[in-house]
Amino acid sequence: MNLILQGISVPRHVAEQVAGLARARSIIAIGESAWRCEDVTYNDEVKSQIDLAAWAARLDYAFIEGRRSLRDFGLVAMDMDSTLITIECIDEIADMQGLKPKVAEITEAAMRGEIEFKESLKRRVALLEGLEAGALQRVYDERLKLSPGAEKMLQAVQAAGLKTLLVSGGFTFFTDRMKERLKLDYTHANQLEIVDGKLTGHVIGEIVDGEEKKRTVERVCEELGISTKQAIVMGDGANDLRMMSVAGLSVAFRAKPIVREQANVGLNFVGLDGVLHLLRA
Question: Which of 71, 87, 111, 122 counts the highest number of beta carbons within 10 A?
Answer without folding.
Answer: 111
